[in-house]
Write a structure and sequence with these properties.
mainly alpha; Methane Monooxygenase Hydroxylase, Chain G, domain 1; elongated; 90 residues
């Protein structure tokens, strides 16, 4: 437990940041889950539209520092490849 004034402030800031990061990450995961559900269901149009909605969410999560910029890029790339592969097969 923090006892110094500065340590108490740092603790408050950490809690606020952790909640903010958790909220951003949760939104990102939900967007990704919608793409994966559409892929499993075999719905090309739904997967494509879910991907278009998810890309800005993933980018924003990286811009806010919750995840690394390259992690976001990798996630977007892999999801795009999966959606494109589905379209090529269908």
């Amino acid at each position: 437990m923090a006892t110094h004034k500065s340590a108490e402030k740092r603790d408050r800031q950490s809690k606020a940041r952790r909640l903010r990061n958790r909220m951003n990450k949760s939104a990102m995961k939900s967007a990704i889950r919608k793409i994966e559900e559409a892929l499993v269901a075999g719905s090309e149009e739904e997967a494509k539209s879910a991907l278009q909605r998810a890309i800005p969410v993933i980018d924003k999560t990286a811009a806010k520092g919750t995840i690394h910029k390259k992690t976001a890029s990798r996630k977007i790339s892999r999801l795009t490849k999966r959606v494109n592969k589905m379209q090529a097969l269908g």
